[in-house]
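User: Need the bound-state model for copper (II) ion:
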Amino acid sequence: MTNINYKRRQFIQYAATSTLAAAIPGSSFARTQGSNMTPNPSFKADVEIALNAQTADVAILPGPLTHVLKYTGKLLKGPASTLRELPGYLGPIINFEQGQKVRIYFSNQLPEPCITHWHGMHVPQPMDGHPMYAIHRDEQYLYEFEVTNPAGTNWYHSHTHELTAPQVYQGLAGLITVSDENERKLGLPSGEFDVPLIIQDRSFSSNNQLRYILGMHQRMRGFHGDVILVNGQKDYTIPVKTRAYRLRILNGSNARIYKLAWSDGTPITAIGTDGGLLEKPQNLPYVMLAPAERVELWVDFSGRKPGSDITLQSLAFGDSSSHMGGGGMRGGMRRGMGGDGMGMMGAPFGQDEAITIAKFQITEQISDSPKLPETLIPMPRFTLQDITHPDKVVPIAIGMRHMSFQLNGRTFDMYDYMESEQIPVNSIQRIKIFHDNRGMGGGMRRGGGMGMGMMMSMPHPIHLHGQQFQILSRTQIDQNSGYETVKHGFINSGWKDTVLVMPGEEIEIIKPFNDFKGFFLYHCHNLEHEDMGMMRNFYVS
Ligand code: C2O
Ligand code: CU
Ligand code: CU
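Assistant: Bound-state model below.
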């Protein structure tokens, strides 16, 4: 994408906005570009935040500062605990309470367009950060919404047309927590014992600047960096006491998938997924975490010796039988790869060896710890009986044409939707996400030709805006040897807004589309895929 090309497209897009806005039913679309959105006087905000997107130079590695894009926030009204700054490039952690009315003055101070999306939050369409609302430098976008989500961990990030991947990569992201009454009754670890872990991979030049190399292969696979950062820091180490902690983990990486496990084989105890707390804690040997997914863990360091440590790792996974062309550099973690070598031609997905994510150092012995609750939050289960049109299944077909990924045979177009993408408001839909391999000859699908086999056998984290959904079924219809290495790491029982669709896998979900009309995106959250057009609108009306 050249700059000129980009600007021209932007121009066409903005030129189209006014006429289309008028043509689209639902006056919510009628918004004039620029900084003239005035607060709604009847919306009595409990919390007001000024949020800026700007450039900054921050310390990440020893030596020169790194030039980044960064959200900075200022609390104008509301509880002092609403914003929590993190050192580095990440935006402040925003702590919401269920029921709060929130007003956010978002101001773009970047020399390029930008818009912000509240990933996981159920908000009206004009507040959702659809790329059609991107603003230019020195313009302001006003968000007003009520926090209706239950307690859980969400996040915010830029969602700018064809710039989401580079903007998020350069820093435009931050965590959101929501708390509520039901959660407080559980007495989960809080305060210093409630720890956010935002995992991202980055790549640096020799003078500490972020490198974002996108040759064709890296574009197809999505960016993989060779340095793991947690909360924006390298070699992340957390001093802990001998008691239980709550970890809120977000995979904020552009494309890298993690297989999280404890270094000493202690099972993972999950207490929450994307949309909030589980019905009850669930033990797994490891948990798969794809871009944009969140998982909340309970970890108890009671009984461990001060001076000892335990690390959260990402274990090796993937298809070990297909080491063609590159000697197994599938993780892209090997030095000198720069992430765009031949190695990935035979590398559909995965990671070659265990890597360290974060180290927990036991520093202090204490005798008191909360106990893991047996049950957490009741979860009403959707069944097929709840679906508004039982015989209708909304398709999300993952496909590929002309070296670009598609959904339902099309790439993103700002205001475009098809009949199958029209959803009645206040309905509950059954949605089937599957790989559409039509047009891929059998010979092409297994590593033939231009690496087509690899392309077709990629995992895709599919995200749907709006309300959280439930997973109805996961079916492996096309055996893929890599699946064995990941299959025990999926949590299918919780509320989700992003689901990792493995090669050969078909996933059915049930999702409500309540309260709000308008365009709600669904897309691959491999951000390079998203920017190349693996995104579509649902038109809820
Ligand atoms: Cu986190 Cu549409 O994105
Ligand atoms: Cu989202
Ligand atoms: Cu994808």
